[in-house]
Design brief:
The structure is a single chain. This protein is 7% helix and 55% strand. It has 103 residues and is mainly beta. The chain has a single domain, classed as Elongation Factor Tu (Ef-tu), domain 3 (Beta Barrel). It has a six-stranded antiparallel β-barrel with strand order 1-6-4-3-7-8. It has a two-stranded antiparallel ribbon with strand order 2-5.
Length: 103
């Protein structure tokens, strides 16, 4: 599984997000490359236009085939859109990527 640290910000005016047991969103790693990641952090409420430092676990990047599709995009301080389908709902600045083949 691919894991990363991130600074995230949701950008849709008037839209806040509440994380319940799991908070899963999609990240765009490039054209046609959307992968779900589970956000965990110190808060359960993610308010519009505020920055949050979080951990992201990409449970959909859990094998070498998926990892090879995104590996070229992974660099410290890389920016990735946060999406709901085709709509961009936020932005993530990611760093400290770790890919663990055992998980």
């Amino acid at each position: 599984m691919l894991k990363a640290k991130a600074k995230i910000r949701f950008t849709v005016d008037g839209k806040d997000y509440i994380a319940h047991d799991r908070f899963d969103v999609a990240f765009r790693f490039g054209e046609g490359l959307l992968f779900s990641g589970r956000i965990s952090g110190e808060t359960d409420a993610y308010l519009n236009k505020r920055d949050y430092n979080v951990d992201v676990a990409f449970f959909t990047i859990d094998n070498d085939e998926a990892y090879n599709m995104v590996e070229h995009t992974l660099s410290n301080n890389a920016r990735f859109p946060i999406c709901a389908g085709r709509k961009i709902i936020g932005d993530a600045l990611m760093y400290d990527f770790i890919y663990d083949r055992a998980n």
